[in-house]
């Protein structure tokens, strides 16, 4: 069964002047200046590729989906935007925000939680009714609602202003409610990444007494350095930013090494030279990240596999609870 707006998605867009469009869904979206700048460059070079989605009511036209395209258009100058216009109530309009962002990562868990929270508190829906409207399970609705309820107002303000990411917020909610405000101040003051924030939270939860907590807050950079010294790709002579660059360099060097071997093997085959020496690639990638660890090995023995796993765990700073392995024969070249 489809909603009626899904059945009408192939209707022809119409041109709407940017002056009459309002950013109604701002309260559910986080500020993303970098994404808007990227959209400006895209629209300047290729124009508008997809229509924006608008809600029409007595107050005019309001954006359901396409905030970045609208803001980019405003920076490029007043004009018209291709638009799909729907006349629905506010409950359906909020469901449409999730619907049009379901296949992309542009809507964070926190933003989804804001929509769920609004449907419950502004429209009086139960969690089960919200699940039916959004076509989502009850547990999924509860998780997103719980994230919004646990975040302090100060943390939510920092998220809206772009001072924190949702990953920071998920780490901060692990702390007792009375400790979150001070932890938030440290994160913003020191400019901690989400991983560094996770290290701080872990140390605070393990702290024995207020003196140790005070030391962590006042010497957070030293605490983070001590926690990362066991990293195979950590150099004490470099700053924290320098060590992040070192990891990125090792990652890219691994990929270039694999491509170089592939090109050499292809050259040997095309010129009729001796068969290339058999090598294998061991790739490792966590499901929650775009990072990838690559190791080029000479065999597929159990010892080599275990060594590659150890190196991968050291690279990703942790041990996986579950490992899913593909057919290793396919990794040879």
Share of helix, binned: 40-55%
Largest sheet: 5 strands, mixed
The CATH superfamily of the largest domain bears the name Conserved hypothetical protein from pyrococcus furiosus pfu- 392566-001, ParB domain
Briefly note the structural class of the backbone: alpha/beta
What is the averaged pLDDT score? 78
Class of the largest domain in CATH? Alpha Beta
- Give the DSSP E fraction (strand runs of 2 or more residues): 5-15%
The CATH architecture term of the largest domain is Alpha-Beta Complex
Give the total of beta strands: 7
Summed up, the helix count is: 15
Strands of the widest sheet, in order across it, are 1-5-3-4-2
Could you give the order of the helices and strands?
Answer: HEEHEEHEHHHHHHHHHHHEEH
The unreliable regions are 329-333
The value of Rg in angstroms is 25 Å
Count of individual domains:
3
Distance between the termini: 47 Å
The best one-word shape is globular
Question: Would you give the CATH topology of the largest domain?
Answer: Conserved hypothetical protein from pyrococcus furiosus pfu- 392566-001, ParB domain
